[in-house]
Amino acid sequence: MRPQAFVRVAVDRPLDQLFDYACPDRGQPAVGQRVRLTFGRSAQTGVVLEIDQPPAIDPARIRALDGILDPGPILPHALLELLRFAARYYHHPIGEVVLNALPPALRTGGPLPGPRPPELLWRLQPGAAPSRLGPRQQAVVAGLRDAGTALPLDTLNDLTGLGLRRGELERLAARGLLESVEAATESPPAGHPAVTLTPEQDQAIAAINADAGQRTVFLLDGVTGSGKTEVYLEAAAHALAHDRQVLILVPEIALTPQLVQRVSRRFPGQVAALHSGLPAGERLRVWENARLGQRGLLLGTRSALFTPLPRLGLIVVDEEHDPAYKQQDGLRYHARDLAIMRGHIESVPVVLGSATPTLETLVKAREGRYRHLRLGTRPDGSQPPPIRCLDTRVHRPDEGLCSPLLDAMRETLGQERQCFILLNRRGFARVLACDHCGWVADCPHCDARLTVHAAVRRSVCHLCGFSERLSEACPQCGQELSHQGLGTQRLERALSRHFPGIPMVRLDRDSTRRRGELEQCLETIRAMDAGIVVGTQMLAKGHDFPRVGLVGVIDVDQGLFSVDLRAAEQTLQLVLQAAGRAGRGGDPGAVLVQTGHPDHPLMQGLRTGDYPAMVEPLLNERRAGGMPPFGFLALIRVDGPSPEASARQAEAIAQQLRRHTRDVRVLGPAPAPRHRVNRRYREQILLASASRSPLHQALADAREHWQRNPPPRHLRVSIDVDPMTLS
Ligand code: ADP
Ligand code: ZN
Ligand code: ZN
Description:
This protein is of the alpha/beta class. It has 22 helices and 28 strands.
């Protein structure tokens, strides 16, 4: 009898182990290859992670694989190493991590896409005179005209957001409007910067290119509009010219169509975009092309990080401060951090770009662990606008708006320019605060603010769990306290009363949910002269609008004084990013921030516009409190169908942790700031430590404990390492 060969397989199960299977008679799969197997009673897809290991259980009890799925490995070693790291670091089951790294169509055992017919590129028929076109067709024509070059269907969809199918283009071709050419016959024009680079840009590019093949991490630090993107594109061109692939991560693709356009235009036919909005089949195609090395530049949101890229030469993380890089469920990874790890594993430089780097990144750059590249000025010589505070204790806001802001808006509109009104509406816990006098509720037992739990009408301390009935009136000035905060829709209504007849666009999740709505909004903004745009943080993303004369910021205090760990940092970043929207094309414009705390050090810092200076108080606070980046945190979350059940389980976990951990502070359990979500009640335990290893030890022990003594099925326990928010 020939010796049985065994493999260890990752299976999509919430368990911390690999499973032994025997190879079928025909063939032994390799590491990184998908297999079919029976797990318990169900048919599953697995990925082989180890071969030639003596099985962990009695060989007689080992089942055989049901089959081998791919002709060879589809996940390369380097990527598997990254996934194993992610499973360890985020304390997440290895099988879930590995299977989730695959495009959905492959997770369930679907086939790899077969060889693909030569790709077609589409362009406008020279001299075609478009007439009697529908809105979709007009958008196609406009997209191709803007691009100025032939484009593959997926790029055209990225540019227009239309979700076109090939048949539609073929019909337009039949009408003599478009023509198609085979990609292979059209050699992509070499990328050239459209501009003359500044000496700072040249230096940055030279530094990145010089470290090709090394594990250097760069912080590319420059105000919005200072030309960072131009630097990424040049460094990418260098890598592509050396036959290497480039991965560019962006926080959200839909929000930055201009970036996709810019990259696609610069490297026609070489760019693939990958994000969760793509239909499954298209996503699989893009993934497969990248895996086979057919597209040189992959532009994607956080999950694109897990795409196999055999010739990877450069990773860029654009807007590295953006919280969208953190996955908030399942494997709660931070794509920037894993990008750095991937660069390390694959010996590839990683460029982190931001005008407002996170404190983590800033500190590492200061310590010399990252190379700090600076772009000090904008190439066009323009200056970011000055930031001024409007004291809401003096100018009482009515429906969120105070009169000097309204006056400034009137003036800006009179100059035929646009006003952007930003409502800071991140999912931070709301502190109980008075909009009129600036009073903020503190916990009687802790150095912490009380947060509003509107559903149960209580204010709660998220550290010790203290709670009391929500007060209706401010104890300091007697005015009514608002518990809900203002929404964008209410703000929009108030603004249209003040400015009847003025064009207005609202930009938030609700107004841009359906396909094409976002593009429509952005288009309207670009097309209008004077007008008002009201919205959430979506306003602050990298859009380049030439006519913004005024940025008004509402409700900044909630962000600056929130109990949430990163709320103040992210609020400063948000205001500066929003400020970066003003003052393009000449006049610097102005930024007005409404606050009840104009003398607070953070507000004073904000007024200077100098980001490294304004985060200094935050850094001091974090250092003193042993908070990141000077200490390490993890959250254990428990959620269940009743407040009691969640609290009991959380208490048991906390007690077990307290008995066994050293060098780790265990805080709580306390109700999560958003206690009730989807009729489930959430409790959390915060772990803090001065160094990583005791924290990870504590998490590993806790997990082992609850895997041996599993909580009842209706309770869910999850771990969030390096949490971005405590909500
Ligand atoms: P960032 O990514 O830092 O916001 P961009 O690279 O988008 O900056 O540049 C902002 C604007 O300035 C863009 O319109 C870009 O084309 C232009 N730009 C960038 N570099 C230069 C340069 N060296 N000379 C002239 N214009 C430039
Ligand atoms: Zn008050
Ligand atoms: Zn407390």
